Structure formats: structure tokens, C-alpha cells
Amino acid sequence: MRSRRFFFIFLLLANLLSGQKAWVGAEYTATKTAEGERGMVVAPHPLASAIGAEVLRQGGNAMDAAVAVQLAIAVVYPRAGNVGGGGLLVIRTQNGETDALDYREKAPLAAFRDMYLDSIGNVVPRLSQEGHLAAGVPGTVAGLIEAHRKYGRLPFKALIDPAIELARKGFSISEGEAARLNSFQEAFRRNNTLPNPFIKPLKWKAGDRLVQKELAAVLLRIRSRGEAGFYEGKTADLIVKEMQRGNGIITHEDLKNYRPQWRKPVAGQYKGYRVISMPPPSSGGIALLQMLKMVAPYDMAQYGIHSKEAVHLMAEAERRAYADRAEYLGDTDFYRVPTDSLLAAGYLQQRMADFNKMQASHSKALSAGKFKLNKESFETEHTSVVDAEGNAVSVTTTLNSNYGCKVVVAGAGFFLNNEMDDFSVKPGVPNQFGLVGNEANAIHPGKRMLSSMTPTIVEKDGELFMVLGAPGGSTIITAVFQVLLNVVAFNLDLESAVNAGRFHHQWLPDHILVEEGALSPEVRKGLEDMGHSLQSVKYMAVVKAIQRLPGGRLIGVGDPRNPDDDAEAE
Ligand code: DON
Questions:
Q1: Closest C-alpha to ligand 1, atom 12
Q2: Which segments of the chain belong to CATH 1.10.246.130?
Q3: Would residue 332 show up in a list of annotated catalytic residues for this protein?
Q4: Model confidence pLDDT, tens digit, residues 474-521
Q5: What per-residue string of b and e applies to 77-112 under the rule 16 or more CB within 10 Å gives b?
Q6: Which of 180, 262, 366, 372 is 20 to 30 A from 3 (CA-CA)?
Q7: What secondary structure letter does DSSP report for 145?
Q8: Which CATH architecture has domain 263-379+453-558?
Q9: By three-state DSSP, how is residue 169 classified?
Q10: What is the pLDDT of residues 358-368, one digit of tens each?
Q11: Active site residue: 98, 140, 251, 380, which one?
Q12: Which ligand 1 atom is nearest residue 421's CA?
């Protein structure tokens, strides 16, 4: 992927010097569906996807575009874009090789199992969700640099420059960002000192300019010193000072020791498709493959999308996968996750043995599956990219909640994550997404918290077929499951597949969440008669997907659930 590198360095520099870029000072509108031959970027903000598409145009490959988009999102999408967070990435190269990068945050060295419990063992409300103690050691900067080092083609400096420019000169915020900034003003004031780029006496409104000079300086330090520009020196000093101000526990040692980790993707077959996804510390890949294999024996097309039979079957598969998630999944560097057993055909067949076509199971009576353990070893963002050569990158990154723990590192201008809440802070006590866990996902110094992020790539007949993923907490895995089935089992085009209403079962609590309007009154009644309890939600995860049609044409689709989602062809 590096062969044409020097030619493209020249081209990109020439372009950067040639004056005003399309994304600076630009008015922007989001395009939901794009088509192209040569490359595609789908990202959560039009300014970010414009930068990604420009990088492809300048000869960058899919990884270059993904890295540039992530850096841009750190500026233009502050509620989730992050240098203060972490992420998970899956790549499939044009030759069909696959790889996964884990740059998930880690528990600080001073973290301990019961750190969010009071003296009598009760969870202290919100301690793992808001404020300095909620932050894990950020992984994004090390992750993006490592991803680029192994797979990038253009110089890193060229990929970070657009983000620096946007931070320095500012950009017009969207209506969605303005609304969110307004709704968190109180939390920002509670957790921060003034002045602060995100706190404003008057309400934010669409079109207001967000200038982030301190963040630009952080990005410049990363540009000139690489990882050391963040994990050492001035940026590290500012993070540690911020921690000390707010009784946080991240130290210089935590920052200096942070390393991303290359991992082997999990992969499995669903009918004629090979599904490649993220291994632990994500639960997404394993749960997705489990669910696909549990429903594979059934003729979904005959049931029909959103039919009572299909929703019942899929919800029961979801229930069983999430029960296993709670018991068996965690960071494999600390816990022996029985991946092979969880994905074994025989195990999944046995897991569905008590599936009753006419009646809902009850989560109280249905725990994690049993097998002999052997010695085998609501704010996030997703970007899907395919380049002209057929390299594909699927990457989901997160601060966890909107604006993470709400703490902005003073003098550095970026939000810190609240990823510690993704650990099981006490066995059986639900986190902000209602997820429960046990020993596998207990807190331990240096351990990574379990994630639901499910960056996924799908092959058909050995060729690239789809790239997809989403933000949405616990609903990410079921959203990827459903969008994929909408295409490969229910034969929808990609736009209809992404737009279609969704539903979600996560074992506990024992109900199906249903997006408003997703199911007809008859189907809802049918499911209730089977014993399912239904709860309505406005919307759940926000999927960004690319499909490669026979002959190579690319369709990119951003989700209407996020007005800023944007698909851009090269
Ligand atoms: O890693 C996870 O599973 C969560 N921290 C993701 C959070 C998320 O998607 C929130 N977004 N809407």
C-alpha cells in the first residue's frame, strides 16, 4: 500500500498549499446516500467525510482516509469525536488480509475492583459516568498513529493538517451539535473551570462558530512529536494536572505506558457471506456471529422483514447472545474468554434447543450457556471507508456518553471519556446501557473495559461486500445484525436496510425495545401474545454502511437517525 507514497506526498502537499480547502468555512449539508466507483466514506459529519473523500482523491488509501476522518471528528463532532477516548478498528486489504486494532481505553494503574462502591458496597450513583474518576486512559492518539504506521500511505502530517485548520479557524456547528451543547451546559459547568470553549452564557445555535485553539495546539504537538506529543510533555502534563484538580487517578505513568494492540479479528460464515468483526475487548464480533449462526437455520425471507416470526426469532437469538456476553466476555489480556466454544456450531445449536416458535423465553430462567471451559486462549461514532483499490476500514470510536465524563482538560480543550462505566462496576448491577456483567468484565488496573462496538466487514465469494458499524451503546450489536440481515436475508437495498425500523433485546432487562413505527400494531400484539414485553424508543443505533455491488459500484449510506451522518464518494 506504500508503493506510490512519494508521488502522493507531492500531490497532497501541492493541494494543501493551493489555498482554501473545500471544508474551511464551508456551509455543509449532509448527503444520506452516495454512489461512486472509486471510493466511499461514510462518517458522522459532512466536514469529516469531505476530508476523508479528499484524502482518497489525493491518492490516500482507506486507512489514510479513516485516520484523517477520525482526527477531523475530534474537532467537528466533540460529543463523540475524541482524542480523549478510544476506538476499535477492522481492516480488510485489497488482498483479503484482515486485521483488527484495539485502541480501547484502559483502567488507570490506580483503579481497583470496587472503586465505584461506597463503604457498604453499594454503587455510588454516577461516579463511573461523570467527572474525572470516570475516565479511562485514552487510546485514540496512539491507535491512529499505529494504524497509520502499519497501513497508511500518505504522511501522517498531511492527515492531521485539516483537523488542525478546522480547530484553529473554527467551523459552523450543526443544529444537532448546538442542541446537545445546550443540554449539557450545566454538566459542563459542574465539571470544568472557565473559560472553556464549550461553555457559553447564551444558548448555542446552528451556525455558531466553534474555535478550538487549545485543541489545535494539542494536534500540532501530535503532528510534530507523534505519540509523545500527547502521552508525554505538555499535553500529558495538562491531563495529569486536570486529574489532580478533580480527584482523578490518571498519571504520567498511565499515559506513557499506553499501547494499542493488534488483534486477530473474529470471523464466521452466514450462508454465503463471511463476516469479519472485532474480537474482545469488544463483545460485538462474538455476539454478532453467535446471533447470525443461531438464526441461520431458519428461512428468514419466507418470514419477511418485521414479521412476528422474524422479530421473535431474532429477539430470542439476541437474548441468548447477550446472556453469554454478561458472563463470558471481557478483556482477553486479563480473562480467558472462551471464544471458540461460544462460536462452536454445536454449542449454538444447543443454545437454541429450547427456542419455542410460539412463545417468548424468560430471561430469569435463561442464563448464560453452559460448556466445559477448555484451555483456549449514547455517544460514539463510526466511519466506514472503501478506497479505489478495494481496501476497506471499519472503525468505531467513542467517549462513551455524550461529551464523555463532561470534563474538558483545561488548557488542552478536549473532553475525556467516561469509559470506566463500561466495566461491570459491581456484579449484576446494570451500567448506563442496562448491561450487566460479572468477573470477566470486573475492573483491574491496566485492563480494557468490555465494548459493544462492532466495526464489521463482510465478504461474498471472497470479495469485499459490505462495511458497516454504528454508535449506540448496547444496541450497536443488534443494529449491525439487523442491517446485515436486511440486506442478505430480506434482500433490501442498502438505504432501505439502514432506514428500516429496529428492535433490540439484550437479555436484561427482559423486554424488546422497538423503534417508534418499526412494527405494525398486529405484529406488536402478536409478540405480546407470545409473552414478549415491548417498550418504545425514538431511535437506537446510527449505522454507517457501504455496499459493493457486483461490478464494483459502491453505495454509501448514512443513517437518517443522525442528521449529520454523511456519505461522500471520492
Ligand atoms: O464501547 C461501548 O460499547 C460504549 N462505550 C459505546 C457507547 C456508545 O455507543 C454511545 N453512543 N451512542
A1: 378
A2: 263-379+453-558
A3: no
A4: 999 999 999 999 999 999 999 999 999 999 999 999 999 999 999 999
A5: bbbbbbbbbbbbbbbbbbeeebbbbbbbbbbbeebe
A6: 262
A7: H
A8: Orthogonal Bundle (1.10)
A9: helix
A10: 999 999 999 99
A11: 380
A12: 5
